[in-house]
Structure formats: structure tokens, C-alpha cells
Amino acid sequence: MSNNFILPDNKLIDKFFDENNFNLYYSKPALKHIKEFILAGISKRFSSKTTDIAEYSENHRTTIGHFLSKGNWNEEFIKEIIKNQSLEFSFDYAKNNDEPIFILHDDTVSEKTNPSSQAKSPIEKTDFCYSHLTGRTVLGHQLLTTMIQSGEHNLVYDLQRYDREGKSKIDTVCDIAESMPTPPTNAYALFDSWYNCPKIINAYAKKGYHCIGALKRNRIIYPKGIRIGISDYAKYIQKSDVHLVTVNGSEYWVHRYEGNLNNIENAVVILSWPVDAFKNSKALRAFLCTNVSLDEKTILEYYSKRWSIEVYFRQSKSILGLDKYQVRSIKAIDRIWVLQNLVYLFCTIGLDKPMKFGRGVLEARKHSKREYIEWIYECAQTGIPLNTTLELLNVA
Hints:
Elements: H1 11-19, H2 28-41, H3 50-54, H4 61-70, H5 76-97, E1 101-111, E2 127-131, E3 136-150, E4 153-162, H6 169-179, E5 187-191, H7 198-206, E6 210-215, E7 220-221, E8 228-229, H8 230-234, E9 243-247, E10 250-261, E11 264-274, E12 285-289, H9 296-304, H10 307-318, H11 330-349, H12 357-381, H13 386-392
Parallel strand pairs: 1-5, 5-6
Antiparallel strand pairs: 1-3, 2-3, 3-4, 6-12, 7-8, 9-10, 10-11, 11-12
Helix pairs in contact: 2-11, 4-11, 5-11, 6-7, 11-12
């Protein structure tokens, strides 16, 4: 691209940078690259490729690739910004509105093509992992994600690449639990059956958080002191042992067990079936809640909020290109994920008011277009010839 390329200022991004003290930690060239990534990230058809970012930069895509893989800048500061901003906003909102806080854990797979045996530089650190989305084992990177939710606000907190040579996913979630501050209101960690284990539950309990999670049907419970698996216990449940609850517009038959599980002294276990599938073993779902004061309807409603993290995965892949990067260095890949989450943070609580990510992207795009138009208008008002303006924007 031409060295005369001019990128009009984006006042919202500049304000976002100032409020988070980016200038204290990054040089002007690094700040410029990060700003360009945000501008590219809110554009349509962004896929995290260096060619996409280059459309918003005076630099060639190879320079951008060098910035990601070898640039002298610390992405850990951005990670801390994301964590601190998400925590502060969610905790303040929960306290001021008397709302519960939810910590969501789940993982997803960024699938990649199996490289040829002739490939000289395949994508680093890929591994074979099971994809729940496709129902098969695929090659790629596995991403462990944590979100914070309060009210209607869903914020990304942390995203880590799972490396089977390092810590387990269970230990990683325990580390996150131990790093959480004491919540100002009732707080719950939500997860699927894979993460529902005493180690995580105890780690959260020490910090003042309850847990709600799906249970596998072979988990052992002790009704009246009898040791039995959930699926076998369900065979003895009759219509008189259940009642209907409505959750998010759908009806379910539910049965409540309260008592011991292996390595868990006392908790609530909810067995549920869709209204038209009572006693259907394939339709049976089980959920655990460590707050025994909650009723069945509230437990199921709270657990349904875990869906927000699935929405995050879908939006991050379709809008931010979470799984479409083409850089090969693992350092560059890790940095791209950090910058993608910075875009997510900017579009949720970095604009004039907090909003859902999908709406925030649209608002950020409108603002960016408006600033371009205003800049072009100012060029015309100050007498800059049209051809010069086109050259400055590299569209002559």
C-alpha cells in the first residue's frame, strides 16, 4: 500500500485506549497496529487474516504478520484489561441492580486442515481433539473460554488454548476460580457435565460461589442411603414424584433429589424430562446445584443462561474469525485471539453505552463509517482536492 495512506481517527477507539491506559504500555507503532486490528475486526467479512487487517493499514500484510509473530509488545496487558473491565462492569451491575453473577465455562475447537506430509511449516501446536459440533475427532486448537454474565450483559473474561502437555482443563478452571474475587451478590459457576467435578466445585465454594452444572446419567446418588446411578434411579420415579415447571417458555417434568453424591456432601439434583417425554430414558437430563435453597424452576432457568457462551462461540467464529486465522506461528495465533477478545470487549462495554455484542458491532461499524464521511467532508471544506483525498485513502 501507499505510504501516503491516512487512517482517519476513530474517536471511540481513541477514548477506549485512553481510558485503559494503552499509551503507558505500548509504543505508538504498536498502538497503531492494535487500533487497526479493532477497525478491521468491526468490519464486515472479517476473518482474522492479515489481508483483512491490511485493508485498514498503510502496512503490507507481511508487516502485520511480523507484528503478530515477532513484534515486541506484551499481549498480557490486554488480557488483564479484558479481565479487569469484565469483572468491574459485571460486579458493579450485579451490586447496583441486585442481580446474580454467573461465571460460564466451556470449550470449543478451532478446526484446521490436516497438513500434507510435504508441508514445510504447518500450523503450530495443532492436535486431534473431539468436536461436539461435528461429533467427530478433528485437527485443530481447543479453546477453553470463561465468560461473566450479569443481567443481559455477557462479557468475555478469559480464553486459553488447551495444551495437553500443560495443565489439564480441570486444573485451569480451578485456577480461574481461585483468582475470582468475592462476589457482591449471589454468584454461580455454570458448566456442562464435563466440568462438573468436586475439584472445581470446591475451588469455587472457597471463594463464595455456588455451582450449577449438567450431570452424566451414571453419576451416583444416595436416596435413603441407597447407592444408585441416576439413570437407574429414574426408572423408579412415578408421575406422583414429579411436577411441571415452565422454563423459557417450555414445560418439563422435574424430580428433586437432595442429599449426598460421591465427594459432595449435600447438593440438589434435578431430573427433568420434556413434557411429552416423561420416562423416556433418552430424554432424561440431570443437573446439580450446590445451593439447596433454590427451587427447581430457578435452577433450570439459571442453568439455561449457559447458552450465552455457545452464542459467543458462534459470533466469534462468524464475525471475528475465531477459527479462520491463517498465520502459522502459535505466538501469532495466541495474540490474534487476545485481540479478537479486545474487539469483543470494545463492542460490548467500550461504546457510548453497554450493549450486546451483535448490536455493538453494528453500532461500531456505523460510527466508523460516519467518521470516514466526516473526515472526507472536512477535507472538502478545507479545500483539499478530491484526487488528493482519494490518494490519502489509497483508493485513487
